[in-house]
Design brief:
Elements lengths: L37 E8 L10 H14 L4 E8 L3 E8 L10 H25 L11 E9 L8 E3 L1 H17 L14 H4 L10 H8 L8
Antiparallel strand pairs: 1-3, 1-4, 2-3, 4-5
Helix pairs in contact: 1-2
Amino acid sequence: MYLNSTVPTSSRWPMAARQTVRTRVTITIDHMKYQHQNLYHVYNRTINQELLFRKHDNYQFFIGKIRKHILPRADLIAYCLMPTHFHLLLRPKALEIFPDQAGASRGLSRGIQDLLSTYARAYNRVYQRTGNLFQQKTRAKITGALHHSGADDKGHFTGLKQSCRCFHYIHNNPERAGLVDDILAWEYSSALDYAGLRDDGLCNYHLTSTLLKINRRAGR
């Protein structure tokens, strides 16, 4: 149902129904104080297990929103988009990139809010639904942290085992859910990118190699 779709990959799918229905979507700002030294597993799902992605274009549109709202604020380590939910493993960018008031913490919180709210509004327009699509509280768990003892110290990463487990957990989601027999058959995760079969430009491979000691395979 979800693989090998012939639907174009344009992220403009909501435009056709822009005038269909006015919707109100409420997304609560995540008050997690994101810190640059930490890795976070960020995830959310739909209310009542409603489909989050009904076709290929929906996935592509959400990925476009990740590029716009998350990548300027965080380095992405891994991701997986599932029919009813999503997973992101990421590291917030340094505070100095966001000199305004709350810095990177506010920046990433706002980015996550914008990701969910803009997608939900577009989804509601296209599928003529109203109300919230996502659960109000986006979850964010720290999986590891990079500690520095001085200005010249390259840092010591703690939580390697937990972060690696999370990395593989995210990629194994489609197989565990019975959607595919092989994680590389699922188009909507970064597993294909780390296998060297694709490079969608979302993940920071160098950071993954540095922190998790997981290297991307050479492209085939």
